[in-house]
Amino acid sequence: MRKKLLTVALAATMAVASVFSAFAEDVDCTGWWAAHSQGYEIGANGVDLTFSSKSYDEAASNWNTPIVVVYAADAKFAGGAGMSDTAGYTEYAVIRSDAYAWGPANANGTTGDVNSGAGADNWAAAGYTMENTGVPADDAGWAAWLEANKAGVNCTVKATKNNDKVVVELTNNGVTSKTTIPVDASKTIYISVSGELCKVTDLKEAAGGAPSTDPTPAPSDDKKDEPTTAPAGSKDNNVKPSQTGDTAAVAVVAIVALGAAVAVVASKKKVTE
C-alpha cells in the first residue's frame, strides 16, 4: 500500500510540474525588437524570472543576446511584436545582457541617455545608476562571453519597485548588472524580455525577491557599441507567439488534485487494515 501511495503522489507531482512548464515562454528574437515576452508586473513583492538563451550562429556582437525592457502601460502586454504600440506605453529603460543600457528618448527625440561613454553624465543626471560584476576586462573576454551565449546560457532577472524607483538585476553567464531606474510611482510597471539574434526559451516567473544589496561595482566597458538599429519601434512581424495563461489558478487545481489522490489512497489503506 505504501508503494501505491508513493506512486500516486509521484504521478501527481509530475502533473503539477508539467502545469508550470506548459506556461513557460519561448521568445525567438530574429531581429531587433522583433519579439517580446509578455509583460511581468513588478509588484510589491517584486518579480523573479529565469530562462535559457542561445544566440544565433551568425551573432557577432555583444548585443546579440537577451535584453530586458522596463515600462508602464495601461494593460499587461501579452507578448509578441508591437509592445511599443500598447496603450499608455511609457518606456523607462532598456538593459542589455552586456551591462549596457539606456533610458527613454530625450525631449528632442534623440537616442536616450546611456550608462557609459558620452551619455553617462546625462544618465546620472536623470537619476539612473548601474553597478556591474563579472564584466570581462578586454575584447577577448567579451568574445568568449559571446561564444558561451552561442553555446547556450542560463539567465536570471530580479526586479523590485520601491515608490518611484525600480531596481533590476540581470545576470547572463557571470555578467551581472544592477540598474536603478526612476519611474512614475503612480503607474503599474512591467518588465519584458527580448533580444536580438537569440532565442529565449523556458522563460518562467518565480516568487519575487529583492536583488542582492551588496554587489561589487566594476567599471562599465565603454568599448561596447550602441545597437545598429533604432532602440524602439521596429515593426518586424517575424515573431513566434508567446504562451500566456493563469498559472496560479491551474496550479491550485493540480495541487488540490494531488491532495485528493493521496487522501483516497490513505482512506483505502485504513479500510483494508
Describe this structure in words.
The protein has 273 residues and is α+β, with helices and mostly antiparallel strands. Helices cover 24% and strands 29% of the residues. It has 4 helices and 12 strands. The protein has helices spanning 2-22, 120-125, 139-151, 247-272; strands at residues 25-29, 40-41, 47-55, 66-72, 90-96, 101-102, 129-133, 153-162, 165-172, 175-182, 189-195, 198-206. A 7-stranded antiparallel sheet has the order 1-12-3-8-9-10-7, with helices on one face. The protein has a 5-stranded antiparallel sheet with strand order 2-11-4-5-6, with no helix packed on it. Helix 1 packs antiparallel against helix 4 (247-272). The longest helix is centred in the C-terminal third of the chain and has 26 residues, at 247-272. The protein is globular, with a radius of gyration of 21 Å. The relative contact order is 0.28. The model is unreliable at 3-22, 208-258 and 260-273 (pLDDT under 50).
